[in-house]
Amino acid sequence: MALVKLIEPQDEGKLALIRSLLDANGIPFFVHNEHFGSLYPGLSLPFNRRVVMVDDTDLIRAAVLVSGLTERNQSNAAG
């Protein structure tokens, strides 16, 4: 089992949504800096960013689930 980076959410709301998607689809995950990152909410510093990690065998499936979130953000920013 090797953990790989899936996504680095920029806020607590997106992290909650990602957690919910992964839980609902039975994909185990780990949030690196989960509790440490909440010490300084709002600040996006390199040492307090949360990173969602999944097993490398689940990466493609998890990336498909999360891709809808990033696509929506890009289309909202464009127009």
Task: Explain the overall architecture.
This protein has 79 residues and is α+β, with helices and mostly antiparallel strands. It has one domain (3-78): Alpha-Beta Plaits, CATH 3.30.70.790. The protein is 42% helix and 18% strand. The chain is built from two helices and three strands. The protein has helices spanning 12-24, 59-78; strands at 3-7, 29-32, 51-55. Helix 1 runs antiparallel to helix 2. The model has no long low-confidence stretch (mean pLDDT 82).
Task: Reconstruct the topology from this structure.
Layout: E1 3-7, H1 12-24, E2 29-32, E3 51-55, H2 59-78
Antiparallel strand pairs: 1-3, 2-3
Quaternary state of the chains: single chain
Report the span from N to C terminus: 41 Å
N-to-C order of helices and strands: EHEEH
Low-confidence stretches are: none
Q: Any idea of the CATH topology?
A: Alpha-Beta Plaits
How many domains, in number, for the residues?
1
Main beta sheet strand tally, sense and closure: 3 strands, antiparallel
CATH homology superfamily name? UreE, C-terminal domain
Count of DSSP strands: 3
Radius of gyration: 13 Å
User: Taking all residues together, what is the mean pLDDT?
Assistant: 82
Helix percentage range:
40-55%
**Which CATH architecture is right?**
2-Layer Sandwich
Instruction: Give the DSSP E fraction (strand runs of 2 or more residues).
Output: 15-25%
Q: Structural class of the secondary structure composition?
A: alpha+beta
Q: How many distinct helices? A: 2
CATH C-level category: Alpha Beta
The outline comes out as: globular
Main sheet strand line-up: 1-3-2
